[in-house]
Amino acid sequence: MQRFIHPIGDYVGQIESQLNFHRKLAAIVLLVFAASFFLPFFFARENRISAEIPVGISGLPLLPTLLLLIPPTMILLYALVRTPKASERLLSLGAALGLLAPLVVLAYVGPQMVSTIGPFARYSPGSGMYLYMTSVAIVYLMKVRIGIGDYIGLTVALAVVVVLGYRGSFDRLGILLEARNFGTRLSREITAHIRITGISIGISVLVGLPIALATYQSRRIRKLVFPLLNVLQTIPGIALFGLLIAPLAALSQAFPQLREWGIKGIGNTPAIIALSMYAIYPIIRYSFTAISSIDTSVVLAAQGMGMSSGQVWRIVRFPLATPGILHGIRVALVQTIGNATLAKLIGGDGLGVLVFEGLGQASVDMVLLGMLLIIVLTVVADRIFQILITVLTPVSLRRERA
Amino acid sequence: MTTHPVRPTLEETPSFLKAEHISVRYGETVALNDVTLHIPTNRVTVLIGPSGCGKSTTLRCINALVKTSSGHIDYGDASIQAMSETDLRRNMGYAIQSVGLMPHLTVEENVDLVPRLLGWKRSERTERVSRLLKLVRLDPQVYRNKYPHELSGGEAQRVGVARALGADPPVLLMDEPFGAVDPLTREQLQDEFIRIQRQLKKTVVFVTHDIDEAVRLADYLVIMKDGMIVQADTPEQILAAPANEFVERFLGPDRSLKRLSLFTADHCCLEQVVSGTGKPSEAQLPRGSNRCYWQVDDDGKPIMGYTWIHNRIIERPITGSTHTVQPYSSMKECMSAILSLGMPATAVVDDDGRLYGEVRFETIQTISLS
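The joint structure predicted for all components is written out below.
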């Protein structure tokens, strides 16, 4: 007898297995939530570098504890409820509250906590809270799609945080205290970081694109360029920064004019040079691939139609390679924002100043502030570039990327 | 065995495009060996042969995409080596198998490419695109702003042909232009090509590996092998007298059937047909084993065929497109329609499907004997 599998039966089976998968995920999320309750939820410090005083869930008053327990309860209900619509709503609500609850608790418990310790006391989120937030993030990833309800939830959470901040509830939060201590220097370092990154990317695009074209045109240049790039890529970042000090110092000694322009062994110049050398690899690689993966028949047809080689580039190759080239620049940009942190090590500016000075002063909050700003910069730059790529990709080619 | 390059025999037709003793060598490999070819003006020259025979190379020599190692190609009075490559190519439409439509440009921008390169006025170009799209039977309103990925294989090929005709070049080079589509679409495209060529009378050089396509389209058939011309003549001559065993094998065992591809339906279509809107009475249906009566509907479209077989009137419903032919259909298709309908003749219908005439089996017989 032949076994007959009804197509609809098979479909139900698929949904069933998907549901089971999500139950397992929910179980994992609940475990992570549970673990977060055993770790210190907040830290308090007497001053910026004194020892941490951990505060666990057990140390919190009843009401905040209950508030923190609501989101995991909702996830638990989600795993138990079988109607898809209700369970999806529970997931949305659980996620939004999961985002909100720890922040509200932090805003109310934090100031109370530090008021008894001293005038310079401050508080920061602890590992328990990070873990708690991680499980909220997993909940968002679990969602089939991010719906309008989720956006409302996120907006409400953000609004509540802004209102709380405006009322001064976060005044004693470690990283905000650090930011305030930096004052105008903070915005200066942010601009410096953006400037260093921008100049490096600009240089590597200006140098990299012609090299990419040359590697495409000539096999001999290709054989030279790619091994060289590979070697360059294997030099550790810090080493490359250091290696540039000696030759640039010698150069500025020999030609004092250069020193006036800011070209010397330490500072932003060697950092920019090193960063450009790193960024050039993805730019050349991606551009080369983008140009050489253009359908040969399209180019043949263009030539056969009587386009000059300049026209073939202008009308055919460049428009078709643009998305690939932009992807290369995007990869280089994201990588450079991170690497620019190292500029501080050779006397350059940027957010590396916060990270390395924070490390030097053993101020965790300061390091955290620097890292957080770098992450925000990276994410924002990445988003902007993705939008740029979508806009500049010819309409007919967008479909292929989707 | 003779494998000497054979001189063209269409001597009465002038030729302004002449390849004289051209050879192409890549290092040790000889891609073309002393090929002499005079392309008859305003006719279709088809180059055919097994893969690697040099047919595409010959074509690409003509528009200088491949450089000849020796010999020369003359375009009018000048040698193409002396002309600017871009000028030369803009005077020659070029259509290739994979079409090579620019994926980021609309149908209009693709067709418009060569006129744009030549610097035509915008108003002139817009009108030209509409005319070309209509010529290849694509509605300009519908297709103008579509992108290549939105087209079917057959539609893309049509746009490819329209693009090749863009600036109304005297010469059209086509490298297996219908190679990448299904057999049905290919046949339609061939029909269209014949129709367009009758209208425009371009000097066409057409490369294919499909012998049926070659026999059907060629005024002048050039059979190539190993970089040399084995036989070059009218398809009629070649089918009647293959130069050697290779040509004979290449043409295949059904040569007489292939000959039918040389003629189109309108060539021997009888416009005097017996037809009416009702069922025929015995008096209306002419006696004789190869006479037909066509019943048509109110629009004049044939719906039923009647004939005498052994003193009995038999009727055959006309249902699909395989039961009728069009004026540009080949005699081979007529033969097929006759067989599939089971009648001694097939109805010829015009573009709107209305009865236009009939092609009789006996006519086909006379032709294949001639």
